[in-house]
Amino acid sequence: TIGDLTGYSLGLGFNLGMVKLDLSYDNAQRKSNYQFFETGLTDPITLDSTSHNVVFTVCFNL
Which of 11, 22, 10 is nearest to 60 (CA)? Predict the structure, then answer.
């Protein structure tokens, strides 16, 4: 089964007149259980996944 996705994000931006700067961050975590076989090796595995993303943008007003 795929578990619930939990996470958070935040961002910050600056307007410097002719230039705009933006920075954002997000974090996501999920715990999932997978069962590969119906007979034999039937113990499910647990997969913990975490992702971190950082984005920085620059915008020039021409």
Answer: 22
What are the tens digits of pLDDT across the range 3-59?
A: 788 999 999 999 999 999 999 999 999 998 888 888 877 788 888 999 999 999 999
Query: Could you tell me the CA-to-CA distances from 28 to 38, 50, 52, 53 in Å, in that order?
Result: 30, 6, 7, 9
Domain boundaries, the chain: 5-60
**What's the predicted TM-score (pTM) here?**
0.70
- Please answer whether residues 11 and 1 qualify as being in contact, where contact means their C-beta atoms are separated by less than 8 angstroms: no
For the sheet with 19-34, list strands across it.
5-15, 19-34, 45-60
